[in-house]
Task: structure prediction
Amino acid sequence: MSERKWYKSAGPCGDTVVSTRVRLARNLDSYPFPCRISEKQQAEINQKVNDSLLCDGSFNFRYIDMSQLSDTEAMAMAEKRLVSPDFIKDRTAKALIVSDDETISIMLGEEDHIRIQVMRPGFDLEECYRVADKVDRILDAHLNYAFNEKLGFLTECPTNLGTGLRASVMMHLPAIQSAGLLNQIMTTIAKIGLTIRGTYGEGSSPLGAMYQISNQVTLDISEESAINNLKSIATQIMEQERSYRSTLIKNPAVEDKIYRALGTLKYARIMDTKESISLLSDVRLGVACGLISDTDIDTLTGLCIDTQPANITVITGAASSQERDRQRTEIIRRALCSKQA
Amino acid sequence: MSERKWYKSAGPCGDTVVSTRVRLARNLDSYPFPCRISEKQQAEINQKVNDSLLCDGSFNFRYIDMSQLSDTEAMAMAEKRLVSPDFIKDRTAKALIVSDDETISIMLGEEDHIRIQVMRPGFDLEECYRVADKVDRILDAHLNYAFNEKLGFLTECPTNLGTGLRASVMMHLPAIQSAGLLNQIMTTIAKIGLTIRGTYGEGSSPLGAMYQISNQVTLDISEESAINNLKSIATQIMEQERSYRSTLIKNPAVEDKIYRALGTLKYARIMDTKESISLLSDVRLGVACGLISDTDIDTLTGLCIDTQPANITVITGAASSQERDRQRTEIIRRALCSKQA
Result:
């Protein structure tokens, strides 16, 4: 895992978009869905998928037997969104195939036999889809997908039937949140089959003003249409956010809040996850608006992951919550101060 | 006023003692006390005092006609404690004689005809008294003090009768305050004729944990005894504070608070007086305990004065409270960042 992780690099429209993700739900024809599958059968699928990818050789993947991981290691993967929270609850017969830069992760034994996921920094739906599609074609060439001419790809949950595609854009929307416009946006985009929800907590003010916008419709729609719909709406929201920011940032109290957040991040010696997400969000707004040049968007995106509890433990070995709160500030200082020099 | 001001230099025991002050209340024999004096008579006294000092020539003084100052200039002097708040209310016929470094200030027309005041950084009662006594002797040689063999120096208010001396030590007592020991100290020292009160607000938790300890007894006591009593008690309190600090500073929450205070002072863009006093106090504790080396005690003492409202206006020309809150952060940043380089 020596390659630079995707979440530590810049991406397009990084001022407002943190990351983009595309996932494809796939199942094999000759096996029962995961809710009824035996451990042995899922293990067979895992083997087949891995063999197919090795045989193809286009990507450099690692195969991880999830049952061999500690709870903390598994949790750290969920914090990075390499795997879903559900995936790590019972890890028997589950496996993850992951690329060195962690942009591609393939969950084996989640709600479907195979979940191909591609994540990239910034706003990059086409590239995410292109890569996911490439992996999908490799597997399709080697394996027998459960597919119905009328319905499309068959999935365990009917909400994924059809394309099996869920694309999502994680956006940083502090100005829209502060203007109280989120409920309105939520209602509007629901009408065209999209949904928006807080990344760190639901409700009208999720922590850090981080939101995920994703498509809900998978039936009777092409992958391209689903991607284009989402792209078009996310672009509109992005432009609205930028426009509201230009007003917001002129407010001296907001400027003060942003600088104080940077000062606190650079100097605090104890900090919990909630506070760090909130302060990193404030500083992110400051960098995006050109107010702060001490650090950059990549560093802040990386910190949002490195300061999550399980990742801290993986990085530093911190065993207790107190020790993590302490190490969190060291990780932040190291990242923010190296950029300054 | 080019000389470095006293409050921007280090003093003895600066870890716990901010400054020391000695003042002598004196009146002239042939004039009524200020409560009954005419403007013309007080003006005569002002002239005589100034002439005496000029004639002697030991000190390099400036003579300031208080009626010529703006309210802001007068208020800035009160914030520096060069003059008392009462002294600047009605400034008719009042004058101030002040040394370049502002250690010596002589109020003419306060509650007494003449109030000689000497202030120095840190714990320095002897030197304050030595200088005050020197000024006193010069005036005594040229003027006729109101003096009674039995009572000593005669003053308008009977609480100053005798020595006319009030010595005070401004101490920074965050550890004693945090341990809740102040009421106990207050009761104890009252019994031996001393008093302790908050510099920025009364009650059990004055802002910034700054306290003034001063003598109350002026009758039937020598100047030396009064000074020695105060010195002995202040020394005990100082040692108690240091001892409590060694425990307090080991508390991770306290360490965190100190570093956060420094971060906020270095980065905030809007700050009111109360917050700045409180944060400067936290950082002062950090510097005194060797936790923080980015800045020093002199800088912090200077900032406690330069960030007071009227001083900000004098320094920067800021006209409104909003503008002062903004300029306050600039003054702080300039002071804290120059030290860092």
Remarks:
- Chain B has two domains: 6-244, 252-340.
